[in-house]
Amino acid sequence: MKKSEKIIVVAAAATLVGLALFAVDKFRLRRFLNSISDEGYETAYDILYPEKKKGESRLRFGPVLPTE
Fold first, then answer.
1. Alpha-carbon gap, residue 42 to 33, rounded angstroms
2. How far apart are CA 31 and CA 36, in angstroms?
3. Largest Cα span, the chain
4. What is the spatial distance between Cα 15 and Cα 23, in angstroms, rounded to a whole number?
5. Residue 40: which region, alpha, beta or left (left: phi > 0; alpha: psi -120 to 50)?
6. Are the CB atoms for 36 and 47 separated by under 8 Å?
7. What digits encode the pLDDT tens for the residues 30-51?
8. Among 49, 48, 46, 22, CA closest to 34
9. Are the C-beta atoms of 33 and 48 separated by less than 8 Å?
10. pLDDT at position 33, please?
């Protein structure tokens, strides 16, 4: 087997593995979202995406002076 053929085989194998991992990830996500929707939590962001943290909150208590 020539070196160029080995490179092509390795690249094809890596592509197939990547596609398989992508498909498994999408399958797990779809199953997770379906289980959530069955329970009625379609719009609850913290339940849909528990691993994501919300950004800094702009909620401030008391008088707030505008900063320049």
1. 8
2. 9
3. 75
4. 12
5. left
6. yes
7. 988 887 776 665 566 666 676 7
8. 48
9. yes
10. 80
Residue type for position 68:
E
What is the token pair recorded at 1?
A: 């087997």
CA distances 65 to 13, 30, 55, 56, Å, are: 59, 46, 22, 18
12 vs 46, higher pLDDT: 12
Report whether pLDDT(24) > 90. Answer: yes
47-50-52-58 Cα dihedral, nearest 10 degrees: 60
Q: Which amino acid is it at 43?
A: T
